[in-house]
Each structure stands twice: as structure tokens, then as C-alpha cells.
Write a structure and sequence with these properties.
The chain is an all-alpha fold. Helices cover 64% and strands 0% of the residues.
Length: 208
């Protein structure tokens, strides 16, 4: 049975109006207080949704959020997941984060193209993420055995599955926003999957 407080909360939930200041405050919170660049995608979210989305994200990348996976591990998993889900915004952002962490550009490009890097530590995370995605969280017995040979425990795979699921949800959101006309920032284009084709001329001009 649901508690009375939960029923009351559900009954009060719904669309509410927000002001221009509410939006400005939410943008200021994420850019000035949390240090994120102002993405055009943020302007398509309601202020409350933006704060909820970004609070959840920041909680995930805090150093002690998970037992096995570090924030950098998450960037690897999220790059692989975003590549598989073809989310340009997320893929570009997380590939850029890996480049910022001084991961080799060719390895990051391989992941952005949906491949497996040579680095053993990153490769095991990418392979695990691919298996989790392949069957929507279900791992076949032979896949479990293979991942076990790479040092994965059952508990670590639960964390990988959680990380993949969280990013898949964000991929759905940002692909939707791209489809609704959200522009991609130039700094994202330089780390993304279309840097050498669709955006090549634009990026060359930006360098001049």
C-alpha cells in the first residue's frame, strides 16, 4: 500500500509555471556554481528538470559515488554507450572529457567510432558496456564467463549496467533535443564523431 504522504505528493505533482528568473537562476547554478559550459540543450529543459538532471549527473561523477567505477571509468563507459546510441552531444562531451584527461586521441577516436581501444583497462570497460547494451542489461552465460576472465565480478557488472542505463537515458533525452533543433556547440564538434567530415570546414575556420 502507498503511504498517505506519497499519495499526497503524487496528487500535487504536475505542470507548474516558472518565471524567467527561475530559468536564469537554474542556468546560473549549473554554469557559475557547478562550472559547466552553457549548452544550448539546457535552454530546452524546464528549470526544475535541468537542476534534477544535472544534480543526478554530478552525484554520479563524485569520487565516492560507486564502489568499483571511478569518474574516469564512467567517462569510458559513457563514451562507448553514447557511440552505440548515436548521441552526438553526449558522445562529444564524454570523448572530450577523455581527451582532457590526456587519453590518446586515436584511442578516443576508436571509441567514438564504436570500436574497442587497445588500452586493456579501457577495453574491458568498453566490452562490458557493449554486452550490457546488446541485450538491454541481460548478460549471456558465455558473456559472463568472458567478462570474468577480464577480472569483472558480479558486483562490478551491476555498477557497469547501472552506468550504461543512466547514460542511455541521457542519450534519449539529448537525441530528442537534437531532433527538435538544438544546436551543437563548436567545442563539442571538435571532439565528436563528425569532426573530420560534417564540421571539418567550420572547425578549420574556427582555428584561424
Amino acid at each position: 500500500m502507498f503511504s498517505k504522504s506519497l499519495i499526497l505528493a503524487l496528487s500535487l505533482a504536475g505542470a507548474t509555471a516558472y518565471t524567467k528568473k527561475d530559468r536564469e537562476d537554474a542556468i546560473k547554478w549549473i554554469t557559475e556554481e557547478k562550472g559547466f559550459p552553457h549548452l544550448a540543450a539546457f535552454d530546452k529543459m524546464t528549470p526544475k528538470m535541468l537542476k534534477t538532471v544535472m544534480t543526478n549527473y554530478l552525484n554520479l561523477v563524485s569520487p565516492d559515488a560507486l564502489e568499483f567505477l571511478t569518474p574516469l571509468d564512467l567517462e569510458v563507459i559513457w563514451t562507448a554507450t553514447s557511440a552505440a546510441n548515436n548521441c552526438e552531444i553526449c558522445l562529444s562531451f564524454h570523448a572530450g572529457a577523455l581527451l582532457g584527461a590526456e587519453k590518446p586521441a586515436d584511442e578516443v577516436a576508436t571509441m567514438a567510432a564504436g570500436g574497442v581501444p587497445k588500452d586493456p583497462k579501457m577495453a574491458r570497460l568498453v566490452i562490458a558496456a557493449k554486452y550490457v547494451l546488446a541485450h538491454k542489461g541481460i548478460l549471456l552465460e558465455r558473456e559472463k564467463l568472458h567478462l570474468s576472465s577480464m577480472g569483472f565480478s558480479a558486483e562490478e557488472l551491476v555498477e557497469v549496467t547501472f552506468a550504461v542505463g543512466q547514460m542511455t537515458g541521457l542519450n534519449l533525452l539529448y537525441v530528442h533535443l537534437i531532433a527538435e533543433g538544438v544546436n551543437i556547440e563548436t567545442f563539442l564538434k571538435g571532439a565528436g564523431p563528425f569532426k573530420d567530415t560534417v564540421y571539418a570546414d567550420e572547425l578549420k575556420k574556427a582555428e584561424l
